[in-house]
Amino acid sequence: MMEWIDGRSIKDVLRSDHVDMETKRMVLRDIGATIGKLHCVAGVVHGDLTTSNLLFKTRSKKEEIRGEEEEEEEEEGGEVVLIDFGLAQYTVQDEDRAVDLYVLERAFGSTHPELEGLFDEQVLASYSSSFKGAKIVLKRLEDVRLRGRKKSMIG
What we know:
The chain has 155 residues and is of the alpha+beta class. Helix content is 52%, strand content 19%. The protein has one domain: Orthogonal Bundle (Transferase(Phosphotransferase), domain 1).
């Protein structure tokens, strides 16, 4: 199914000087919860998680008066939406889920180095509370991180 998403990329939201730190923390928590639902409920790994493939969908409110639509009014807040499922696959493998998180972590660190310390604290904490099997996935993530470091050390 396709739909038009009114909003901005998470990359733009996190880079914006007009977005306060508490809102950025909230967005990071929403990212973790959204990925947790994707992995657990849908049984899907994205394959290319970056802050460019996550949108912050603006909530809007339409009011109808006497059968005529008035202009949309933006409400505060929104929701995180995943896009670009070209590399996605169905899987229940914890390793695949961990690699999905690792890809996001690496992309996040290179795109948003000033917020890198919030990744574990906000994204992974929220991911962890989003489904029961997250503990195993996060343990696998540690293994993936170690393998990733070894690969880059060897060349």
